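$ ./design --mode recover --in tokens.txt
reading tokens...
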């Protein structure tokens, strides 16, 4: 229990130390302490992984009785099992690399100590979310990572646009969180518990389950997952999260916050298996999200925005797998995506660092000549996300496409099309950034250099993981599926029997990726094309460049209507109420003013009034008899 508490509290202690003493001890020391606490949590995660992998027994820790109302009870406890330990490994492992990267990347920032404090707090809440033994503890972590995303996205708060992006992320996630709360209330009402193990036992042993309310709870929980994991319609906050420093983008997009929705649905797989209609909705929403985000990424010119919409698209593929009941496959893609997407974001940060803040790919080019390590690691991760063998993304994405083909050919086609687009826009980004001649300013060109070792080392580690990460779940011999098997009520993804159809599907997926890469090569290398300037973009490309005008639609439907309603209440309702309130006050003042005239100081008048009143009382009593 002590080690489990240390695993959780180490980042929190780092947060407390940096927030109170970080400014006094210096930037490097602050970064080392912040990184060291997460490395300690990673080492403890490995310890528990080895223990559970050997014993095959989950570790349940109950700290104290927390909430008890009638027959409803919630304990404050932790659950370390196969799923939570797996999540801990990449949350703390990749989190450690991002912290190490940040020591160099953020070294010139005056508030570096505060940045590391927020990063540590982010990791602390994500660990709490993952290891909680019930939905209430999960909700603490769920809200905590939302708070930290607000703090980190708006870290450079002197820029009002960044503040707006932080508020957008915070508010949009609150919408999803309401869904999560409703789902929790329904489950608590049905089963008088929110503990995972107790819920699973109650559902397995129940003979008269109310499927209607089960489905309602599952759908409400899915809305919560849509908010955290950026699915339609609650996805627009994630691209705007690029306002934060690049390490924040890597942490949010690769290892922590956006994976929370997938974790929650996977954890409650026994609930979602009872709601096939909700699963169908999840699969459809996931596939549409994957396609829509991929089309938007085709024309973006900000290097981080391309990666952001790529994240939304890849999350859509994970939700497609969840909706098809292939929880192991979704988890597999979460892991491989954490490897190559963290590498891609940190690689983009390396480029931005070398160009002193430039993010427009139209002003890049030729960087592979001077940034060899960044280029090679970026190339490896681009091949991985494009689904090219033998890199990790090929294995996880191919599993999703195989499962989709078995269940729904239309969803398979949509996912395949999104995957083809992924290969195109990723190599469009690669060619525009690293190939041909440099298109930036002469001053930028004179200062081009490879990033320091604290930046390139995490890139190398992540590129290696993006290369070999697929080995944990080979199609014919999946260690991951066997490892996660005790968590699922049914095995949704049994080992595929590889015949002509399966090999043909694999070939189609790989050829699709190669076609996407080839189109990007022909367009941006052979034809030497560049994306048009903003004012010159027209037609459907303009619709894509402006993200289908979804933000504008939301602004018109919700923001402007809310502002109009607020102005109506301010100008009309509040004015009327104010007039009424002040009017009553004026009447009272006037009555008091007139009444005080009776207080003339004349004793004769007072005696006359007294006698008059006494006569009135006597008369009333006489008449009343």
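writing sequence...
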């Amino acid at each position: 229990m002590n080690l489990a508490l240390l695993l959780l509290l180490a980042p929190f202690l780092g947060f407390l130390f940096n927030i109170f003493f970080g400014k006094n001890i210096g930037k490097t020391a602050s970064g080392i302490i912040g990184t060291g606490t997460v490395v300690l949590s990673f080492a403890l995660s490995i310890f528990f992984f080895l223990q559970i992998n050997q014993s095959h027994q989950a570790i349940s820790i109950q700290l104290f009785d927390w909430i008890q109302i009638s027959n409803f009870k919630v304990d404050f406890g932790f659950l370390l099992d196969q799923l939570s330990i797996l999540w801990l490994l990449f949350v703390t492992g990749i989190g450690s690399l991002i912290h190490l990267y940040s020591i160099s990347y953020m070294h010139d920032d005056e508030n570096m100590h505060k940045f590391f404090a927020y990063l540590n707090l982010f990791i602390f809440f994500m660990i709490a979310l993952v290891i909680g033994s019930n939905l209430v503890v999960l909700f603490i972590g769920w809200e905590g990572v939302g708070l930290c995303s607000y703090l980190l996205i708006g870290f450079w708060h002197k820029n009002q646009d960044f503040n707006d992006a932080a508020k957008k992320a915070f508010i949009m996630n609150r919408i999803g969180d309401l869904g999560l709360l409703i789902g929790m209330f329904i489950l608590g009402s049905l089963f008088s518990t929110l503990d995972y193990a107790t819920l699973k036992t109650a559902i397995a042993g129940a003979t008269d389950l109310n499927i209607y309310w089960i489905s309602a709870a599952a759908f409400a929980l899915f809305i919560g997952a849509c908010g955290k994991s950026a699915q339609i319609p609650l996805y627009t906050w994630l691209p705007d999260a690029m306002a934060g420093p690049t390490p924040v983008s890597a942490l949010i997009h690769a290892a922590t916050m956006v994976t929370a929705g997938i974790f929650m649905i996977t954890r409650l797989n026994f609930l979602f298996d009872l709601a096939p209609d909700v699963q169908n909705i999840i699969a459809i929403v996931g596939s549409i999200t994957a396609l829509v985000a991929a089309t938007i990424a085709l024309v973006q010119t900000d290097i981080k925005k391309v990666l952001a919409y790529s994240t939304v698209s890849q999350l859509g593929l994970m939700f497609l797998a969840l909706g098809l009941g292939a929880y192991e496959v979704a988890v597999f893609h979460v892991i491989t995506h954490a490897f190559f997407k963290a590498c891609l974001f940190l690689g983009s940060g390396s480029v931005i660092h070398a160009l002193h803040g430039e993010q427009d790919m139209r002003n890049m080019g030729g960087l592979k000549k001077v940034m060899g390590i960044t280029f090679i690691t970026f190339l490896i991760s681009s091949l991985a996300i494009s689904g090219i063998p033998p890199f990790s993304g090929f294995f996880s994405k191919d599993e999703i496409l195989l499962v989709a083909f078995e269940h729904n050919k239309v969803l398979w086609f949509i996912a395949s099309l999104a995957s083809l687009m992924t290969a195109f826009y990723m190599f469009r980004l690669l060619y525009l950034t690293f190939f041909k001649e440099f298109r930036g300013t002469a001053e930028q060109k004179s200062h081009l250099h490879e990033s320091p070792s604290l930046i390139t080392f995490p890139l190398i580690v992540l590129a290696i993981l993006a290369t070999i990460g697929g080995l944990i779940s080979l199609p014919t011999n999946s260690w991951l599926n066997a490892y996660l098997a005790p968590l699922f009520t049914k095995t949704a993804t049994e080992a595929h029997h590889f015949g002509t159809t399966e090999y043909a599907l694999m070939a189609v997926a790989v050829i699709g990726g190669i076609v996407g890469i080839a189109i990007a090569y022909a367009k941006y290398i052979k034809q030497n094309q560049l994306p048009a300037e903003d004012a010159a973009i027209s037609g459907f490309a303009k619709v894509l460049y402006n993200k289908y005008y979804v933000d504008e639609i939301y602004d018109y439907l919700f923001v402007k209507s809310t502002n109009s309603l607020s102005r109506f209440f301010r100008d009309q309702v509040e004015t009327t109420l104010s007039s009424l309130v002040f009017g009553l006050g004026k009447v009272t003042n006037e009555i008091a003013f007139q009444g005080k005239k009776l207080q003339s100081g004349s004793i004769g008048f007072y005696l006359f009034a007294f006698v008059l009143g006494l006569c009135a009382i006597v008369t009333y009593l006489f008449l009343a008899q």
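exit 0
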